[in-house]
Amino acid sequence: MNQILLIEDDPKLNQNIKEVLAEEGFSIESVFDGLLAEKLLNRKSYDCIILDINLPGKNGYDLCADFRKTDLSTPVLMLTAFDELEDKIKGYECGADDYLTKPFYMKELVLKVKSLIKRSPPSLSAKDTHTDFQVSDITVRPGQKKVFRQGKEIQLTPREYQILLKILHADGEVVPKKELIKEIWGKYLETNTNTIEVYINFLRNKLDKPFGKDSIKTKIGFGYYFED
Questions:
Q1: What is the mean pLDDT of the segment spanning 6-23?
Q2: CATH number at residue 158
Q3: What are φ and ψ of residue 143, in 5° steps?
Q4: Domain C-terminal end among 84, 117, 150
């Protein structure tokens, strides 16, 4: 049975989410405070985390960012009261995997949770071995989930790392946007191409611009590829 940690300070919404997910067969542990949630995250492991942004004690952005310092794999679904691009981008930068804007349909929440838990497809994880490899001046250490360029470590979120790995393994071939969505986010196609574009922009800002490079290319209307 999948274990989910729900961090939501609205008592009614917290209870509603618990009931819906319990009906779907999930085991739910819920808290209303960011600091208490942090203590639980330091002690226990979960299959998915549902995280509100506006929390007492410690907000969702800070909680997620600190959690990602020690855990790069557990999926985080962020709940936000605002449908602003800046809020979504900040959530992604903190390490969130996906988001839902309040109010939302419970069915959509369930679909996203199921998709996040199943998000790592065999075709991607099979390539992510423990053998280090190099593409141009980029070195990847899969066993440690670390990426270096010209000897300098690049701090990537789990999603950025997965997308980069997929592009590097394509050996210069174009990776379609829809393929990235399917392989990294799973079959729940509500994640649209705009999300991919946001992550590609993150990667370019971290991996290309500081080194005066333009390696991650866009094939307009198709997808992305790596070119030294």
A1: 96
A2: 1.10.10.10
A3: -60, -30
A4: 117
